[in-house]
Write a structure and sequence with these properties.
The protein has 394 residues and is mainly beta. The chain folds into three domains: 133 residues, Immunoglobulins (Immunoglobulin-like, Sandwich), CATH 2.60.40; 158 residues, no CATH class; 68 residues, no CATH class. It has seven helices and 27 strands. Strands 1, 4, 5, 8, 9 and 10 form a six-stranded mixed sheet that branches. Strands 14, 15, 16, 18, 19 and 20 form a six-stranded antiparallel sheet that branches. The chain has a four-stranded antiparallel sheet with strand order 2-3-7-6, with no helix packed on it. It is globular. This is Fibronectin type-III domain-containing protein. Keywords: Signal.
C-alpha cells in the first residue's frame, strides 16, 4: 500500500509539469484546474509525526521564512474501503520556521502525509514537490477513557547524594511560582503547545515539587513517533505527579489502551526512553527509570542515564536544551553559560533565575565560586573531560 501511495503522488506531481511550463513561458492561462509543480519552489524538509489521538494528528517540518504551505493526507477509509484525502485544519510556523499542522484523522487508518510549499504568481499557484511521510501503522482507536502513567525519574542537576533526594531550590526560592506557573516546553526544541498551568500559591502548597517535565507516549512499532505528550511535575523522590501536585497517575485522554514506549524530557537534561514498551492494556502503566541503567534505552557505548550513588539519573548539563552535552566545539554548553548568558564575565552571578543555563538547578547562574555551573558541567557531568560528548539516547 505504501508504494502504491507514493507512486500515485509522484504520478500526480509529474502530470502537472506541462502546466508549470505553460505558466512560465507560454501565453497567460488560468491555473485553477490543477496544481502547478515547480522545482524553483523550495520544498520543506524533516516531515515527521509529532503526536496523534483518535481524532487528530499533528505533523511538523522545517520551513523557510514567509512561506505558505499546503498539507494534505491520503488514507485508506476502513469503512468505505476507498482511498480518501483530507487537508490540515491548522498550519502554524514559529519565528524559527518550525512548522506544525493539525490533520483530522480516522482511527484505525494508515496515512500518507504530503507537505508542499506554495507560491502564487499571477493566477498560477506554484507548488514545490511534496515532502512525504508514510505512516506504516494504523492510528490508535479511541476508547473514550484514555490511559494513565505512574513513574519515577531523577535529575542529575538536582540530585543530592547526602539526602538521597533531589534538591527543591527552584521551589523554595519562589522561582517556580514567579517564572514557571505555566509549562515551559513551548519553546524550540520541544514545541509543545500544552496549556498546563497552576495558580497562585501552588508551589508553596506543594514544596516537594522540583520542576516541570515533559512525558511522551510513543508508538511501540515506531519509537520515534509520539502518540501523546503531557507536561507534569517531578517531586524530590522522583515521583511524577499531575498538575494538582499530588496525583501520581498522569492522564493521557483519548489514548487507546495497549503498549507504548515512555519518554521523559527535561529542559536542561538529556531525555530518556523506556527500554521496553510499557503495558497499558489495563488502562494504566508504570515504570521506574531510577533503579538500573538497563531500564532506559541506549544506543551508545555508555548508558543513557548516569549512576549517582545507588540510583540512576537523567544526565544534566544541557544548557542549550539540545540533544548533546559537551564542553567544547560548535554549539557547546560552556559557551552558552559563560558567553551567551553571563556575557563573558567570570565573576557575574545571575540570581533567582529559571533558565536552562542553571545546570545544577540551584537558582543561580555563575562561573566561579561554590556551587558554580561551570564546575558542575565539566567535572560532574563530563567527568573532567574537555572532549567528551554525551548524546541523547531516545
Amino acid at each position: 500500500m505504501k508504494y502504491f501511495l507514493i507512486s500515485l503522488i509522484i504520478f500526480l506531481l509529474g502530470s502537472s509539469k506541462s502546466i508549470a511550463q505553460s505558466c512560465a513561458g507560454g501565453p497567460p492561462i488560468t491555473c485553477s484546474n490543477g496544481k502547478v509543480i515547480s522545482p524553483s519552489v523550495q520544498p520543506p524538509t524533516g516531515v515527521s509525526l509529532v503526536s496523534s489521538t483518535c481524532s487528530t494528528m499533528v505533523v511538523k517540518w522545517n520551513g523557510i521564512a514567509n512561506q505558505e504551505y499546503a498539507v494534505n493526507a491520503i488514507y485508506n477509509n476502513a469503512t468505505t474501503h476507498t482511498m480518501d484525502s483530507i487537508s490540515a485544519t491548522a498550519i502554524n510556523c514559529d519565528a524559527a520556521n518550525n512548522c506544525t499542522a493539525t490533520i483530522p484523522v480516522t482511527a484505525g487508518s494508515k496515512y500518507t502525509v504530503s507537505v508542499q510549499a506554495k507560491q502564487t504568481i499571477g493566477t498560477c499557484p506554484f507548488y514545490s514537490y511534496a515532502a512525504i511521510r508514510v505512516m506504516d501503522y494504523p492510528l490508535a482507536a479511541c476508547n473514550g477513557n484514555g490511559v494513565t502513567f505512574s513513574g519515577k525519574v531523577l535529575l542529575q542537576g538536582a540530585y543530592n547524594t547526602g539526602t538521597g533526594q533531589m534538591n527543591n531550590d527552584l521551589n523554595t526560592l519562589g522561582i517556580l511560582q514567579t517564572y514557571a506557573v505555566t509549562q515551559p516546553y513551548n519553546s524550540a526544541g520541544f514545541n509543545y503547545a500544552g496549556t498546563e498551568a497552576v495558580g497562585v500559591g501552588f508551589f508553596a502548597a506543594h514544596p516537594s515539587i522540583v520542576d516541570w517535565v515533559l512525558i511522551e507516549l510513543r508508538d511501540p512499532n515506531a519509537p520515534s513517533s509520539v502518540v501523546a505528550r503531557r507536561a507534569a511535575f517531578v517531586t524530590q523522590d522522583g515521583s511524577l505527579v499531575e498538575t494538582d501536585g499530588s496525583n501520581n497517575q498522569i492522564s493521557f485522554a483519548n489514548i487507546a489502551s495497549g503498549a507504548y514506549y515512555v519518554t521523559v524530557r527535561h529542559r536542561n537534561h538529556l531525555a530518556i526512553r523506556s527500554a521496553e514498551a510499557v503495558d497499558f492494556t489495563a488502562g494504566a502503566g508504570s515504570y521506574d527509570f531510577t533503579t538500573a541503567n538497563y531500564k532506559s534505552f541506549s544506543n551508545q557505548p555508555y548508558p543513557s542515564p548516569v549512576q549517582v550513588g545507588t540510583v540512576w539519573c537523567m544526565r544534566g548539563g544541557n544548557a542549550l536544551s539540545t540533544s548533546v552535552v559537551k564542553y567544547s566545539g560548535p554549539n557547546n554548553d560552556q559557551n552558552q553559560i559563560l558567553n551567551n548568558k553571563l556575557g563573558g564575565s567570570l565573576s557575574l552571578t545571575i540570581s533567582n533565575v529559571y533558565a536552562p543555563e542553571d545546570v545544577n538547578m540551584n537558582g543561580n547562574i555563575k562561573w566561579n565560586g561554590p556551587g558554580n555551573d561551570q564546575n558542575f558541567l565539566l567535572n560532574t557531568v563530563l567527568s573532567g573531560s574537555l572532549s567528551t560528548q554525551l548524546v541523547e539516547q531516545q
